[in-house]
Write a structure and sequence with these properties.
The protein is mainly α. 67% of the residues lie in helices and 0% in strands. α1 packs parallel to α9. The longest helix is centred in the middle third of the chain and has 25 residues. It is flat and about 60 Å long.
């Protein structure tokens, strides 16, 4: 069989597997409810409350008597002066924690026509007490806004997941080529990754940010390999490579806070590589690794 045809068939099968699992799954569980609530519900960004931080921003900053600019300046001064004891981090929690009737929540999932592409509210909602960063919710918002007829179903968020799952497989193929895998080794690799149960159940078919975060992490690894190739060949690192690395990290971090761990592991790997394998021009790699280590540790500990 033609190699390209084989690759296409393998990818199509790998796409059909999670689609099948989604088809037989008729329920949206707690964390997935949060996803749709964040992305599609204009009134509340959390299952029980909008979160203390978003409530503070709405009442004290955006609706404050002193104006937005002055309120933001006061908030900044308060954070610098009092740090963990600042008002925004200690705002009173909404005491209303209760079960909601079906009539009350029927509008939470479907994207209303007048609320399509309302990215600001989704960002505000992501500031609640138990939410990941806002990147994934914005993508679900976009999907729901483009296809409002499926916005209240599991397929709206799954459309985002399956696209990034496909992208992740393609990036893995590119990494395999860079690292010297044979064609059939690459095929075996994506089959293994594509059907691992934890990836299907926890990443692709769970309507949460993990498939998107995995794509950014894999892309970050690919960009890092490209940069290292230039260093090993004694070629200058182009600005576009550094900009790409930074952009991928930022995109990953606004999708899931664990990208701090990705940058940390990247830094450790570079430090190890410098000290053990590469002696010709170590300072570029060493300084990059040290910076990645420090930033990764800082972002992770300050989540």
């Amino acid at each position: 069989m033609n190699k390209k045809k084989l690759l296409v068939i393998v990818i199509l099968v790998l796409l059909l597997v999670p689609i099948y699992f989604m088809e037989i799954d008729h329920f949206i569980f707690g964390d997935e409810v949060i996803t749709y609530n964040m992305a599609n519900n204009k009134e509340a960004g959390f299952v029980f409350s909008e979160g203390r931080i978003s409530d503070y921003l709405r009442t004290e900053v955006f609706s404050g008597k002193d104006g937005i600019i002055k309120s933001i300046a006061s908030m900044g001064k308060d954070l610098i002066k009092h740090k963990a004891n600042a008002q925004i981090l200690n705002y009173p929690r909404d005491k209303e924690v209760r079960l909601y009737e079906a009539e009350e929540v029927k509008g939470w999932f479907y994207k209303a026509e007048e609320d399509r592409f309302d990215f600001f509210n989704t960002w505000i909602h992501s500031l609640s007490d138990d939410a990941n960063p806002w990147g994934y919710y914005e993508l679900v918002n976009l999907s729901s806004s483009i296809f409002p007829e499926i916005s209240g179903t599991k397929w709206s968020a799954f459309l985002v997941n399956i696209l990034f799952y496909l992208g992740n497989l393609l990036i893995l193929l590119a990494i395999g080529k860079k690292t010297g895998n044979t064609y059939y080794q690459n095929i075996a690799m994506i089959i293994f990754v594509g059907v691992v149960s934890t990836i299907l159940t926890n990443s692709v078919t769970t309507l949460r940010p993990y498939a998107v975060a995995s794509f950014w992490a894999t892309s970050f690894a690919y960009a890092s390999i490209c940069m290292l190739e230039r260093v090993m060949a004694n070629e200058a690192i182009a600005s576009k490579h550094l900009i790409g690395i930074v952009a991928l990290y930022v995109l990953g971090y606004i999708t899931h806070y664990t990208m701090g761990i990705v940058l940390l592991s990247f830094g450790i790997t570079l430090l190890f590589y410098t000290n053990v394998f590469y002696k010709k021009n170590p300072w570029i790699i060493f300084s990059t690794g040290m910076a990645a280590f420090i930033l990764g540790l800082f972002f992770h500990l300050n989540h």
